[in-house]
Structures are given as C-alpha cells and as structure tokens.
Specification:
The chain is an alpha/beta fold. 48% of the residues lie in helices and 16% in strands. The longest helix is centred in the middle third of the chain and has 29 residues.
Amino acid sequence: MRKLLNTLYVTLPEAYLGRDGENVVVRVSEEERFRVPIHNLEGIVCFNYVGTSPSLMGLCCERGVSLSYIASSGRFLARVTGPVSGNVLLRRRQYRLTDNMEDATAIAISFVSGKIHNCRNVLLRYLRDHDDKGGSAEVGEVANRLSAYGRSLHEQSTLDSVRGIEGDSAREYYSVFDHLISSQKETFKFRGRTRRPPFDEVNALLSFLYTILAHDCAAALETVGLDPQVGFLHRDRPGRMSLALDLMEELRPYLVDRFVLTLINNGQVGPRGFTRKESGAVIMDEETRRYVIGEWQKRKLGEITHPFLNERISVGLIPYVQALLLARHLRGDLDGYPPFLMR
C-alpha cells in the first residue's frame, strides 16, 4: 500500500516557491519561511498568485509531485505535471470503455450509486444523533427518496438517465442540508448549492474543500496510471478533469460534507473568518483558510476500515485506493468498480 505523503498548501499571496537542491523552499520578501525535502511531498497546492521557480517546477515534474494553483475563492486555475506515466495499455482500455456507452454507463452507475448511498448516510447520521431536532421529518423523507433513487439507478440503460437521477438526488440532498447545521444558524445558512462564486459561508467552505479533493483525486488517478481528464459520468471537456470529478462524486459526502458540518457545528470556524465582496461572493480570509487546511490534513491522518478491502487505511488514502480499484476493474481484474460506501 502506498504511504500517505504530505501535501504542502501555500496560502500567503506574497510567497515565492524555490528550490535548494532536493528541497522545496518557501520565501516571503527574500526571507525563508519554510523548507521541506521533495521526497516528503506528493503535492503542492498554491492559493492566490504565488511565484514558482522553473527549477522547482522541473523538480516536481521529475519526482511526480503535482503542483496546482487555486484562486482564493476555491476555483481551480492550473496544474503542472510531468510526462504522462503508467501503463499505456491501461489508458487505451480507459479510452475504449469511455467511448462505449454501455460500458461507460455501467461505471457511471457505480459512481452515482456510491454518491447516493453516502449522501443518505450523512442524513441518517443526523437522524441518529438529532432525532429530536426540527427538520427531522423532512430529512427522513429525503433519506427515503434517496433510497428509492438508489434502487432505480440500476435499472437505467443510458448515461442521460443516470445523470438525471444524479441531479435529482443532489437537489434533494442539498434541500435539507441546512437542517444538518445545528449551531451558528444566524451566520451559516444554506439556501442551496452555489458554486462560481459561492454566495454564503457554507458554500464557500464546500467549494474550497471540493477543489482540494479534486486535486487529490486527480493525483491519485495519475499515480495508478489513469488519465484524470477522460471520465465516464462527466464527459470530455477541454481543461476539465472529468475522471477526477467522477471519482470525487462518491467521496464528497464522507470526506468534505461531514467535515464541513463538524467545523461549523463545533464552532471551529465562525462568521469573522469570511468576507463578502461587492458581487455577493463570499470567501474565507487567510487565517481561516490556513486553519481549515490544517484540520483537513489532520482528518486525512485518521484511520478507517475500508469497506471493500476490509483493511485499515488512512483517510487520506481513500482517493488512491478507489483509483486503484478502478484501474483493476478496467484491467479486468474486478467484474465491476466497487464504490466507496461509508458506514
């Protein structure tokens, strides 16, 4: 099993990333602030504008360390990677299956099935812990409808119908997401999913962490030799990491949604950590962003028993394990792709 390496998150807009031998060095106004050996990293994520030396870019590409640039709002900007690696036969198999609508639909069903199951599990967890709170009836009704969507999913024969169920189930899930927020209700109100830009504090947190998760999924797919831009549920679009978005669908409820609810409900983030722009967009300030990233890294170090492998793994390795299982399915080692189903 692959060792869980670290991801370096750089949030200071005035920081400059350079190379000193085999080390990544972060400088601010010519003053060294941080240094880490390249072999300790699997990725570097930069927020706002951050200068990066060509020498460091070359080192990252040579060592397989992905380098991503993300706007302060959480919008993905660019990603620097080295030469394409992995088994060319595996990638050719991936391309053939994504072009075959029957095969693509079967794999897409697995992704959406995992997403619906995990969204429903988030709701059921709320009902177990807060069955006396307001909104429990509505949450229970949506959980039942998600169960029905999950059953009907396996009867679908086209990608369009699968996407329709995915969209309907997502709308149902987000329609009761506000009920899952049990504290700081005067600030953290969720009236629906808004993306570019997020128009409230909850969406700002979700969008920010979804972007980080997409980076992790893309890195995991590249590690096992798959092309993160060629998906099954999400079709080809220039510049879009379609397969990373596919993989992310089933992981968002467990890795991000529950994490965001914990941050809000435990009072770990508060109203002072967000700024509203004239356009109405809401973004996190630098201090809150750093705190959220720190807690995200701690979360990744936790351990769970993987539901399919029945082995203990770090939470941060879940995208990699799922990418590996997808690669095994595409090679023909597994009859189907087993989505991550949280317990």
